[in-house]
């Protein structure tokens, strides 16, 4: 009987343990799911209350607190949970990893965090070797959002070892994919490969499908992004982030289609004023600017305790569309003063630049936004767009020296110069009155595009601005180019010859060279007419000037002989 009772007690204990484990695994699945944080937090608070000294519960409770984009308050709360556990004697390697994770998120010493990670690896080793759970947690810490958080390569190294030791857990490769994404667009293929490995382990892993969709979204690959976001929805119809991603994609393309995705997002996401923001955003996209402002004010009233900085960005967009530039300027400046980096998009920078460009004297402020946009954008193509915007702003302000600097940045980013680049650079150098530089760029322009006229034109303009003598060689070079189409360029060559004629006849008194220019003019216009008459008459004058010394000398000799005869 006693044995029977013991067996019954053991079975009941195992049932309770299984139920607890089941609850934990269910809660863990929600940790990496954006827009379901409230559900996850509620579950973990209950688990923590029931098992405040269980290292695994403690670790995941901390992860639920810092999941997504944690505030300073949330990071402090998470750290307090860890310190309480350590004070209570729960000195577990998983908690050391959690502590190192928070160290990374708070911008602490990365080497100090790595020391905690390595100590956790050493302490958790068994006869079978390293603990894959610890390695995975370390990979997760270094995969967390923000390119400046952690060491992605270090995380990948730990996750590869975890993947060798654990042949089942899909999250190992999910976090590996996130680490590869942090390394930049060049590693997009490796990221997709890692996410696909996660899906090979669990085809229903909605978050892996979603991350692949995000990669294709960054490449603007419509078919691939839709395929993967829809695969995430198929794997988990309640997965909010996929609906939001599709809403975001269609928001400025097909507002009617976008609202369908937004409706599903709001249905499955946390009931949170922050998520209602996307409906206010939809109203803006639908052209309902006044309604969008009203919704934003409603949300703002419900987030007084926890302000939502991106509301200011939405106000700026709405007021800009309503033509109220003063209000738009106030709100975009307020947005950038309060918004965290992850809330700032390329559209915000573009709007700030657009608004500030309307206010003379705000050019320097607009440029600061451009510089920030360039610093925070990993795509070279976007950096080039921003640099061109800066150049245009300074051009409109007629600050050509600054325009030239930004045009040079464009060229540095591109690594090559198009004909239009040469055109803009030379023009800016001329306008900034840096004539030697203008000549230098124009000479390169001619070398790169010898069949285009602008290089020769700018070279002559810059040379003339320096001094008359400097302009002679560029004019002769331009005439050589123009002579390739004599019928089209006859008048231009004649005008250049006139400049050369005046230079040789009046500046240097080289009448023989001036005569040669007259011959060139007559060759251009051999028939009677204004140009021909001018060249002939000028040649006669020059010929007399050339002959005058000889005639005078001859006359002098002749006069001397007569004087001798009279004697």
Tell me what you see in this structure:
The protein has 29 helices and no strands. It has helices spanning 2-31, 37-50, 55-66, 72-87, 93-105, 110-123, 132-143, 152-165, 171-182, 188-201, 206-218, 222-235, 240-250, 255-268, 273-285, 289-301, 310-321, 325-338, 346-356, 363-376, 380-396, 400-414, 419-431, 435-448, 454-466, 468-482, 486-507, 511-524, 530-566. The longest helix is centred in the last third of the chain and has 37 residues, at 530-566. The radius of gyration is 38 Å and the shape is elongated. It starts with a helix and ends with a helix. Mean pLDDT is 89; it is low at 1-20 and 562-567.
| Unreliable stretches | 1-20, 562-567
Give the terminus-to-terminus CA distance: 172 Å
Helix content: over 70%
State which percent range the strand residues make up. Answer: under 5%
Largest sheet: none
Mean pLDDT: 89
Global morphology: elongated
How big is the Rg?
38 Å
Q: What is the oligomer described by this structure?
A: single chain
Decide which structural class fits the backbone: mainly alpha
Could you provide a short overview of the structure?
The chain is mainly alpha-helical and 567 residues long. The chain is 78% helix and 0% strand. The chain has 29 helices and no strands.
Provide the fold topology:
Layout: H1 2-31, H2 37-50, H3 55-66, H4 72-87, H5 93-105, H6 110-123, H7 132-143, H8 152-165, H9 171-182, H10 188-201, H11 206-218, H12 222-235, H13 240-250, H14 255-268, H15 273-285, H16 289-301, H17 310-321, H18 325-338, H19 346-356, H20 363-376, H21 380-396, H22 400-414, H23 419-431, H24 435-448, H25 454-466, H26 468-482, H27 486-507, H28 511-524, H29 530-566
